[in-house]
Write a structure and sequence with these properties.
A six-stranded mixed beta sheet has the order 5-6-7-3-8-9, with helices on both faces. Strands 15-16-17-12-18 form a five-stranded parallel beta sheet, with helices on both faces. It has a four-stranded mixed beta sheet with strand order 11-10-14-13, with helices on one face. A hairpin with a 4-residue loop joins strand 8 and strand 9 (193-197). The two termini are 45 Å apart. The chain is built from 15 helices and 18 strands. Among the domains are: 208-290; 314-540, P-loop containing nucleotide triphosphate hydrolases (Rossmann fold), CATH 3.40.50. The chain is α/β, with parallel strands linked by helices.
Amino acid sequence: MSILQVSDLTFCYEGSFDNIFENVSFRVDTDWKLGFTGRNGKGKTTFLRLLLGEYEYSGSITTDSRFDYFPYPMQKDDMEKTVMELKDTWKPACEDWQILCELSGLDADPEILYRPVGTLSQGERTKAMLAVLFSGENEFLLIDEPTNHLDGSARQTVTGYLSKKKSFILVSHDRVMLDSVCDHMLVLNRDSIEVVSGNFSSWWDNKEKKDAFAIAENEKHTKEIGKLKASADRADRWASKNENTKIGFDPVRENDRSISTRSYIGAKTKKMQSRVKNFERRMERQIAEKEGLLNDIETVEDIRLTPLLHHKKTLVECRDLSLGYEGNDMIIKALTFSVLQGEIVFLNGRNGCGKSSLIKALLARANHPDAAAGDNTRTKNSQKDAAAGSNTRTKDIHPTAPGTERSELITEGLLSVAGSIVISYISQDTSFLKGPLKEYAESRGLDYSLLLTLLRKLDLNRIQFEKNMEDFSEGQKKKVLIASSLLTPAHLYIWDEPLNYIDVFSRMQIEKLIENCHPTMILVEHDEAFRKKLAGRVINLP
C-alpha cells in the first residue's frame, strides 16, 4: 500500500485561455478501486497524463507507485503486428504466461494474441490490452474509458473482470460499471475535487442531499439578506429625516422645541446610523456565508427537440431481411421488425453483428447522404419494395468520414422507409470535426447562435467556442454532433452510439429530453442505465 499525494497542482495547456487545474490538493490510497468521473473537458485524461509525466506542471505529485496506462498507444504500422509482438513495447517486464492467465478471466480466446491487431474487434482489442495491463506487479493502473464502442456482453465481461482487481483509477461514465467495480470515487466538481468512499450511486445520493441542503441554505440567506437590506434602508431614511430637523425650526408650529433640543436630535440620529451599520455588518456576514454554496451544484438545463409528424404511422418496415457485403456471408438473416411513429427502438447485439450495417442500409434506402454504401447498394427485392424510399427527403447532419472505404452492401427481403421522410443521423465517427464551430454551422445550414446556446446547455464552456474542434475532447465533439441533430427537425432520429465519451450529467440530460419530447428513434447504445431509463423496445440481432 502507498499513498498518491497531489499538492497545489496547477496546469494549463500552452496557448490555452484557462487553467485545467488550479491549486488542487488531495490524496488517495493506491490499493483502492478508484472511479474517476466529471464533466467533459474537466481534465480527467489530462490528469492521467500528468501522472505519467507527459506534461510540465506546478505543484507536486508524489507516490512510490509505478503507473501504466490503458489504452496503449497504437501507430499505423502496429495494426499489422500481433499483441504478443507489441507486448514488449507496451510492458517489457511481463511474461507470456501472465498475459494468458489474465486473458482467461476476460472470457477471450488466446488466439486473439496471435492475430494482427487490425483484425481484432474493438472488444477483442480491449480485452487483449487489459490482459497485458494487469500482467505486471506493484503498479497503479490508469484505465481511461475502457467501455467505449463495446457491446453489452463485452461490457459485462470487462466489468466482472475489473470488479476482482484493485489498485487502479477507472475513468468511466458508465454508471453500472462504476457501481459494480469501484470502492472510492474521485470526482471533478465544478469548483472543487473530492475523494469519497463508495461507488457512483452512493456518491450521487449524497451529492443530491448536499445540493438540496446548499440550495435551501442559499434561499434562507437570500431571504435574510433581503430583510436586513429593507431594515437598513428604513433606518437610514429615518436617520436622514431626523438629521434634517437639527437646524432650523418653526417656533409657531414647534412651540415645545428650543435650541437645546439639537443635541438630543443629534444623539438620536447617531443611534439610528449605528443601527444601519449593524444591519450592514450582518448583511456582509450573510453574504459571506452564502458565497460558494452553489459553486459545485450541477445545473442541468432542460433541452428540447422538435420532431416532425409524418402522415404514415409506420416509418420503417423490415421483413425477412438478410444483409451482408459482397463476397462475404450474410451478417443479418431473416430479420423482421417495424418502427412506429413516436417509438424508441434499440438495436442490440455483439460487436460485428450488423447494427451499423443495418443503419447504413436504412440510410441508403432513404437516399440519405450519410449512407456510406448509399450509391452502390444492390438489392434483391420486388420492384415495389425496391422503389420504397425513392421519393424520400433527408437532411444531412455530417458527412461520411474522409477516407471511408465503400463496399457493396447487399440486402434481400423487404426494407422500406416511409416516403418524404426527414432523417437526423449521428454516427460513431467524430474524426471529420475540424475548424471553427461557425464554419461547421454554416456548412450544415444551422443557426450559429442557436448552436452555441444549445452547446452551453450541454455544458460546453464559452472558452471552447474560440477553439478549433480538433482541440475538443472526444466528449465535447460528441456534444457538437448531438446539438446538430437536436437542431434538425426530423421524422426519425438515428443515433449510432451517441453516448461514447459523454459525461454522466449530460447522459441524464439527454434521457430527460427523450422522455419529454417523444421522438421516433433508432438507437445503438450499450449504456444499460440509459436503456433501462428510456424503456424502449429492443431488437436483438443474432
